[in-house]
Specification:
alpha/beta, OB fold (Dihydrolipoamide Acetyltransferase, E2P), 2 domains, 3-stranded parallel β-sheet, about 30% strand
Length: about 200
């Protein structure tokens, strides 16, 4: 066992000394942050502490190879196998997954393969027509200001997005932190509260 370790160390030293580098197929990165797209982590920071999870934008499906591809960084895809036992949520079935629907995939390792046990697609959010407000109406309110217009405008995006640019008079209440920030909402429950984000599926 010691001899094997020494031989392995010698080979590594030789590779480093000669400047030889090796590239390996992206099958299962050891560090969790490589397995999740940064934009996913902005709203779902808990993912970085979860084991055996891949999070990013769905890219493609191969029925022949029984696999799906999930982009976790620009140009970096994770390939996962799927089986008849793989569960799928928020879409009718695995065939309904389309690029670039965000997905969170729980997997198990079988040899060198990552086998998806559960795929959760970002759900479709449907807002009743009666609860939607026109852009022109928002612009008119912003022109008046919160006090005169009697409204509260909430930006539910991550702070980094809010700081990059936002609608004037809006306050930042990131969606995952809303339960702890309810004090920012008006005490008058009849006052108009408008929420906006970076879009939804």
């Amino acid at each position: 066992m010691i001899a094997k370790a020494l031989r392995r160390a010698s080979w590594l030293a030789l590779l480093l000394a000669t400047g030889v580098t090796a590239s390996f197929a992206l099958a299962g990165p050891a560090r969790a942050e490589v397995m999740a797209d940064k934009k996913c982590l902005k709203c779902h920071a808990e993912i970085k502490d979860m084991k055996n999870v891949v999070a990013g934008d769905f890219q493609s499906r191969s029925n022949k190879a029984k696999s799906i591809s999930v982009e976790v960084a620009p140009g970096k895809n994770i390939i996962l196998k799927f089986t008849p036992q793989t569960t799928v949520s928020n879409v009718p079935n695995i065939k309904a997954l389309k690029k670039p629907i965000p997905v969170q995939v729980t997997y198990k390792k079988e040899g060198s393969d990552l086998v998806a046990t559960a795929i959760v697609a970002k759900p479709v959010i449907k807002v009743p027509e009666s609860q939607l407000i026109d852009v022109k109406e928002v612009a008119a309110l912003v022109a008046q200001g919160p006090e005169k217009g009697k409204y509260t405008l909430v930006d539910s995006r991550p702070p980094i997005r809010f700081n990059e640019g936002n609608i004037p008079t809006s306050i930042n209440m990131p969606f995952p932190k809303m339960p702890d920030m309810m004090g920012k909402l008006p005490k008058d429950k009849s006052q108009l509260v408008i929420f906006y984000c970076q879009g939804f599926r």
